[in-house]
Queue: 4 jobs
Job 1
Amino acid sequence: MQTLTVDLGDRSYPIHIGPGLLDRAELIVPHLPQKRVMVVSNATVAPLYLARLTAALEGAGVTVANVVLPDGEAYKTWETLNLVFDALLGQRAERKTTLIALGGGVVGDMTGFAAACYQRGVPFVQVPTTLLSQVDSSVGGKTGINHPLGKNMIGAFHQPQAVLADTDTLQTLPARELSAGLAEVIKYGLIRDVEFLAWLEANMARLRALDPAAITHAIHRSCEIKAQVVAADEREGGLRAILNLGHTFGHAIESGMGYGNWLHGEAVAAGMVLAAQTSRRLGWLGDADVARTRAIVRAAGLPDAAPELPFDTWIESMGHDKKVEGGRLRFVLLKQLGEAVITGEVPETALREILIP
Amino acid sequence: MQTLTVDLGDRSYPIHIGPGLLDRAELIVPHLPQKRVMVVSNATVAPLYLARLTAALEGAGVTVANVVLPDGEAYKTWETLNLVFDALLGQRAERKTTLIALGGGVVGDMTGFAAACYQRGVPFVQVPTTLLSQVDSSVGGKTGINHPLGKNMIGAFHQPQAVLADTDTLQTLPARELSAGLAEVIKYGLIRDVEFLAWLEANMARLRALDPAAITHAIHRSCEIKAQVVAADEREGGLRAILNLGHTFGHAIESGMGYGNWLHGEAVAAGMVLAAQTSRRLGWLGDADVARTRAIVRAAGLPDAAPELPFDTWIESMGHDKKVEGGRLRFVLLKQLGEAVITGEVPETALREILIP
């Protein structure tokens, strides 16, 4: 097991990474203000891991209730969130009851938001079971739900008490979702650490085969980079926006294709290629850099090109993204591989060339 | 105009109190990160004051959109809140768009919660138009909505940028609601300032006649006491709970009688009398203190006795209140007039005697 601390003053918390963590209640119990928890999971993950986590916690004297949500981004809605509130109120959960998110990013985002709002804030612990959620949504404190007019538009910043990333749970993850998680891992290399990018290029086959040492390192380094960025800018004033490399384009792809058709990581992968191409258009990256970006994305089993969408659809969808200020679209681009920058200075002609090739 | 500052470090904000503030956009504009606002009001208040506030803001160069919600506690729900999100997203409101709550406590709580959640947090300004919201919900940062199983169960702490309490708006407030607001004013005297209680006893007729100097003083002193308590305990760890004098009983009355039948302030008034009676039962207050409590409540036009409810209904409803810890009911009682205490040590026999007289 490796442990990393996200440094946020009195809201600092540990991320534990490694095999077999589901059974280790001693990593959770010290964070509970009361030995009472509500595990929130989904219909896919609960049959695989809920009993084990429950047994471990009950063995440590914790009273465990649970609520199982339908699985999928389509259910990241108020209606589903309300099932958590119904369960909490039905069980008379109190302000010191801790929520535990057992599942992927959707479960984590919704559980975190439920914890942020229930009685105006209760503690929560993340037990992410997908690579995407292990490297991404378990660091940063972003929680929320979707609105028909935009993704993640309703939410809160709410930090967990602890994160347990059990790498064993990736054994049951579909290959397509593993690849989607690798998109975010690649992102950390692209925005902040060209050496990590090179390590990923050399180790992609081991990662896709779930080699334990490789996967633990990839998660650890990804969380480390994200934690550094988040610690420097907890509430997304500036630097933190670089974590959105590929996301402005990616959200437009997800929205333009209908949520759920492209996985978030797939859309981000294609979005990172678009960001690289835009960066080349601005003279920051060379052809070889763009080729390298496409190659690592392909090696991870991800799409290296965006789907065809009308130009107006792109602009419309990107305008709903949160990275808008004063009505002007802002993009995260690459000054070079390993160094992201934020810019509002992308001419529409350049965008049009790249989006409608 | 009187101005009071709620001292919360970098989230400190002013409360302006006095006549004619609706027209004074210069009190709002310095708090806007962008000259763009969304006014949230309700179907009762909007026809009275929305045009005036809008004209003042537009005169100061602010772009003003609005959304008008149905009026009443029954609409303090997710469905109504979603009308605000629909409007914000429909207007493409950004992270620097400011929400302005124009209305009573329900509008304030929902607007504040919408501001807390929209894109994970945007600024908001309170323009409370009822006495209750001027003395109570505009200080403290509590926002939220109701759930079928409990009042204010879903919410957030989110501080406004500024509060404008225009005392002229009380002219259109029904007398019954003015009395309900006075319940909270009386509460501040009971929990923290016996001299203010005496001043209220001497000036109740002037207050009910909306004498400008008297009403401004009552609002100012109430906000001052609440601000002191909140500044000492922003997130409700301890002291702040004294603000809930009468509320545990009051919530049970509101819930037991069906929300909307008793006004919140009416239920709190009867709840404060029950708290005084319980305090006498524990030997803290004398008969004269209880009589004085009942008399000031009656003088304000408020009920000085609770409705008849089955004992189990009381216990059941109070158990859903947020002031529960470790399954034990906690009460805010009076050590003496002007000094509230929090206790978990009320024997069930005592409760039964007081609730089922």
Note: Chain A has a mean pLDDT of 92.
Job 2
Amino acid sequence: MNEVIKLLKSHRSIRKFGDQPIAPEILDELLTAGQAAATSSFIEASTVIRVCNPETRQKLVEYSGGQHYVASAAEFLVFCADLSRAGMCCDMQNVEQEKGFTEHFIIATVDVALMAQNVTIAAESLGLGICYIGGLRNNPQGVSELLDLPDQVYPVFGYCLGYPDQDVDLRPRLPLAVVLKQERYNTKGDQDAITGYDKIVEQYYEKRLGGGKSMTWSKQVAGLAGKEARPHMLPYLQSKGFLKR
Amino acid sequence: MNEVIKLLKSHRSIRKFGDQPIAPEILDELLTAGQAAATSSFIEASTVIRVCNPETRQKLVEYSGGQHYVASAAEFLVFCADLSRAGMCCDMQNVEQEKGFTEHFIIATVDVALMAQNVTIAAESLGLGICYIGGLRNNPQGVSELLDLPDQVYPVFGYCLGYPDQDVDLRPRLPLAVVLKQERYNTKGDQDAITGYDKIVEQYYEKRLGGGKSMTWSKQVAGLAGKEARPHMLPYLQSKGFLKR
């Protein structure tokens, strides 16, 4: 295992940050490393909004369901999927933009995630810590108004960045055999493997939360998949010109 | 710039691979490094299908629009967004799965992209090369049948992996100022910056393709955004239980 793979395997989300600011040239370096990730058909559909203003940060804490580290992290970035820039290209070339295709939505969303993950690796290689904030999708309309997001742009996730002020245990992961299938999709052995994994996750939570609460992986996932999830997302996205066809 | 950031910035897609196979323990290592990426709400919604069978590979070449490296790469992986496993968790917990939420689709798609990008960095740190194959979405129904993908699973992209047998120039990227906005979304200066970038991209293509064909970035992006894009994706995804609400 080389140093890079060791670094990748040491990822954990950080939610408590020290006061130390990040030098502007380091932030630029991280984002440039992010841009180097693959981009579908060279579309470069990511836009990152750097939010420093404390009032805006505070609103974003609120919109993301009270995650205070959105305010306290040295940097807070909003990673947006951006097809509006492609629209500018269409204007420059006197071409009518074809909007609303699900395929374009996927392309832009994947572009953003690939870029952000590169930023993550670059940040962690410098001793920084990060946390993805999917919670921004609690109130994407509020975020859009706050950050002036135009049509064809949506906030995929927020992103806290700073020097860690906590030590966090590695979270377990599913056995590779569950995630990696040979030749075809099949679920042979998965339920047994998940039952075994449930015990590992239960121990992890016991250690982390100090007994009392018993939580397994399948229980947590069933809790998520068994209830409605941000039902405003589809109407919101359609209002922004996405996912119409 | 440290070695990790140097590695990130040296990414290029590889489409010509040597014959050298990848040792199974290395492949496992790459995928385990992939699993270490962040996962939304701990859902672990990625499934990777490793395709070795030459006939299956050949079909996938066809489905992805004739990209021959899908057959010739040492390894070909299909990265799937998988909410079917969450359904198994619901069954194990006697909970009814709530299907079709756009939010769950985003969570699973982002999960896959974060994992894949980790695999990419791990692979490149070992001198391997990769290429994302969005072209699998040309025929997602064919891919689904070929690989027995059940409801609640879709192929986000394919993935070629192997030892590079070509030297590829770095592709340019947009000036950071276009991609990184301060405090709020705005497009001030973007069109001028894109006009400048167009010249850089034009030179890149001239060098790569040896004159004759003149292609700028805005022209290429307008070509993509100005025409319909895989209009089958929405009905296909809905047929798999995604994006219904």
Note: The first strand of chain B starts at residue 46 and ends at 51.
Job 3
Amino acid sequence: MEKTTVSKATLGRLPEYLRVLREDLTEEDGPHISATAIAKKLNLGEVQVRKDLAAVSGAGKPKLGYEARELTEEIERFLGYDRLTPAVLVGAGKLGRALLQYKEFERYGVKIAAAFDLNEQTIVIGDKTEVLPMSLFESFCRNGHIRLGIITVGEGSAQTVCDRMVECGIEAIWNFAPCKLNVPSGILLQNENLALSLAHLNNQLRNRN
Amino acid sequence: MEKTTVSKATLGRLPEYLRVLREDLTEEDGPHISATAIAKKLNLGEVQVRKDLAAVSGAGKPKLGYEARELTEEIERFLGYDRLTPAVLVGAGKLGRALLQYKEFERYGVKIAAAFDLNEQTIVIGDKTEVLPMSLFESFCRNGHIRLGIITVGEGSAQTVCDRMVECGIEAIWNFAPCKLNVPSGILLQNENLALSLAHLNNQLRNRN
């Protein structure tokens, strides 16, 4: 069941199901849990929960529901907890550093394995996070079989960084630089335009006046 | 024409049109510019450009297109350049500080007027950005008629901050804390889950194996 692409909405609910399975179950609940019970605990629609779980696990047993431990493992596997995808981040400015310390990524199956900066010195942030110089970038990515890259450099260097990522085998790029990047076909590119999100909210707000 | 809610995609292209109007026009282009010419310069579909511009400006003149200066002003007005929406940000950790220095917001009509932190001391970041203590929050928002709030505090304090925002008249909230917030009906709430964006990309990547 692992090779399913689920919607972003489903993906967003999976960690919530995990939390219920790990934290909210008491002795009384027994070894099984039904979609109905999960829906109730999270204040979600039953049909939705059933659909989400079917995508990662299959149907529960009639009258019994899901075996809680099994379901937990299935969701964990789906989210990649058993094998976090290692990613590299390039650009250790404020945003880059914020992402480096963002705890949530691992809950969704990604671990930032290393951070790089165009500045050619090793920088130590806080206690231990190290930012490496770009001269080590290619060898790190190739040796680690890194497939996922995060770009948090400025507009001016983003394309160069992107090209270097593609060059050394990275297949999926998450871009925060406010510009368009050219990638060869076959490379997954996801642009994160924070200003646009805010503009959208502002636009709705202004239309209320 | 100002009270139109346009799609996020259209909103994202408007600053690009502005750039063309401001920077790419030469003497030879004359005082008018056609949707066709703009589309060509940006490598976009003509129909799309025509539709986008119609939403903010109306149709161009047959054979002539748009009066460039007028169109510039219309897009600027639409994006709110003539009256930036003032916003407040609460939570001056790494992410909050990254957003404070993010230049792109003003290009989309929003200006962070002040930043606050639960830490009750005034902090000065860099040269001049000041982070104020929460004790000044209510009076600042009320006096400034602030309607837009950005939450970059942790999960534990997000609901409290959200309640205080609503209490003092904020109508639209952009939430970065990884948790669900309860807001009264009528309040616009937009959750920004960065981990989910990354998870979505990772999910696509893993399905290729």
Note: Chain B touches chain A through 52 residues (CB under 8 Å).
Job 4
Amino acid sequence: MSGDACVIGLGSMGYGAAASLLRAGKRVRGVDVRPDVLQRFAGAGGVPAATPEEGARGAAVLFTFVVNADQTEEVLFGPNGAAATLGRGGVVVACATVPPLFAEKLSERLGAMGVLMLDAPVSGGAAKAEAGEMTIMASGPQEAFARAQPFLDAIATKVYRLGDKPGTGSRVKMVNQLLAGVHIAAAAEAMALGMRAGIDGKVLYEVISNSAGSSWMFQNRVPHIIDNDFKPRSAVDIFVKDLGIVLETGEALTMTLPIAAAAHRQFKTASARGLGREDDAAVFKLYGEKA
Amino acid sequence: MSGDACVIGLGSMGYGAAASLLRAGKRVRGVDVRPDVLQRFAGAGGVPAATPEEGARGAAVLFTFVVNADQTEEVLFGPNGAAATLGRGGVVVACATVPPLFAEKLSERLGAMGVLMLDAPVSGGAAKAEAGEMTIMASGPQEAFARAQPFLDAIATKVYRLGDKPGTGSRVKMVNQLLAGVHIAAAAEAMALGMRAGIDGKVLYEVISNSAGSSWMFQNRVPHIIDNDFKPRSAVDIFVKDLGIVLETGEALTMTLPIAAAAHRQFKTASARGLGREDDAAVFKLYGEKA
């Protein structure tokens, strides 16, 4: 069993990782609270497990692709948690976006049990995840990298090794999320302004995608706005959380972050208006425009 | 003389356009208030002119690459202005970023004199301008496009034809500038947070350039921050102006634009602290970090 992987959390990123591991010939156990997702996973050749404890038993590498720090703690240390069965020498690859200090403490706690950890948030979106082409920004002990590398290579085209200190991966991810969240909020605001001024949304998309105002998020999210399609690939509430981490960390470092704060306010307002589970591009709706 | 071009304003974008026109075999007259720039232009094969009036005499196409609406009006209609000598059938290609309503009025005023106008803001930065690879977002009468096209093709790889109404080009540019300004301010804020948290600037640049947090501006401006090099390619005060146009237009459309407003406040604060003529990436200095 020593070459097995376990993936906890089969959402858009986790499912993509699990599917990529299967394609690479790994044996993969999967854990998720949704029976339909587990069934799809089984159909793709994966082995569903009922609990993190069961999924982790004897696994070489365990990925946590849950939503946040609380869930990461829960699946590792809660009832039927994975940490107990993973065993000494196992490697946890912690992929959720979490506060950097949480990542540091988690690594200590696992280390005390003989379990190695990579602080390894990911980027790239659902399509890249599905294709095995994520970006991973990871830090942790060399030994953890050595054991996890073949698994990381199966799910990512870029694995940034950011040194041996847990927390570094999460810090880089936090900076990425500041930008990602601001760029989504700005894309929504810019499209609303342009459309209110009478310009066709598709024209704005085409011209700006080829101009200095473009961003990864503009290119990725504006089609959701134009198509008036807000089924969640990544939800508004994710950025309520991630920009919350950014602002808390800024606070702890005595920094004012006015751009991030303005974007955070937009995601919080959207969430308060009942849009929390819609696609994050639904912040567009705050401006009262129709695509 | 009917095939001659005149370029008024030989800053980084205008000089690039003039040089590209020369490379394409056009005869080009250039107007600028700085003697050293005119000398460089002459050395490249251009013909310096002392005033807009002199430069415009009999030109087929006249580009205004000045900074704003006031300067555009001044060089066309002020003392020794170009409009009088350009002549009926001449085409003004108005490239400065200006309020959309200004572009509409300018077109009317020129039209009354028999002069055609393209509302034709540009994007791409100094390097693209130099290479003849700008993006132009233009609107105006078909006849103006027909006459200007060979000149536009010499300076741009993408010429978006946005219909026959002046104002549309400037509206699309305004939306682009909202994004560009926010992305610069966000890039500065993100880099400051990451560096304060102990991450090396070059590492942040490398990882985020390949992640979902990337933007055209992040990739273009962050090297200025890392190299601590704030000599102006495009200055802080340009975004004080351009985001000002965005906010005024939003106001006129009864829209609140909180992300643009937050970025505008950063550029205004930077300008108030004496950084107005530094590179726009100097908003980074507001965070008190050192590269």
Note: Chain A touches chain B through 64 residues (CB under 8 Å).
